[in-house]
Amino acid sequence: MAAVTRRITKIKAKKGEYFFIWEVYQESTKSWDVYSLSCKDAPREELKERLKDMIAHVVEICELSEGDADRIIVGGISESHSEDNRYVTITAQKRLEYSHAPMIINTPARPELPSKEDADSTYCMSEELVADLEALEDEAWRYIHGDRAQTKLAFEEAGKEEKESA
């Protein structure tokens, strides 16, 4: 398996702003450099969908009822890393019926692999969570590298106005 040279540590969406933190391994210093991006550019629809895919995992990890899924909005994920494992926490909000403010949810951290001390995989990421997390990270990398929702360009509007006046 190839050594990991970059990794996402945070993805957050809040009020139309998208925030990412990632690390890049520097061989020369044998350490991770940390980078961040905060941007109001609209994401591709796929990034929004990958965040929605995390709702099922919030329901499962927090032992909520399936009916709660339609009242949950995922705001992001945080990842931490050890030498031989990674852990994910999902942040979400659940609309409450009798409160004006939502309930804030931070799932318990889920390791990807069982620890050496505890070989029980019950508390680890499911295969579905690993797949959904990787798909979300792929979309995050696309956003970080500038692949975002297509917006109207200024010359498109100018062309439309010229046609209307002709």
Overall pLDDT: 91
Strand content: 25-35%
In angstroms, what is the radius of gyration?
20 Å
Shape: flat
How many DSSP E strands?
Answer: 7
Domain tally:
1
**Which series of helices and strands comes N to C?**
EEEHHEEEEHH
Q: Tally the helices.
A: 4
Outline the biggest β-sheet: 7 strands, antiparallel
Query: Could you tell me how far the N terminus lies from the C terminus, measured between alpha carbons in angstroms?
Result: 62 Å
Low-confidence stretches: none
Summarize the amount of helix as a percent range. Answer: 25-40%
**Strand-pairing-aware structural class:** alpha+beta
SSE blueprint:
Layout: E1 6-14, E2 17-26, E3 31-39, H1 45-53, H2 55-61, E4 72-81, E5 86-94, E6 103-106, E7 110-111, H3 127-144, H4 154-165
Antiparallel strand pairs: 1-2, 1-4, 2-3, 4-5, 5-6, 5-7
Helix pairs in contact: 1-3
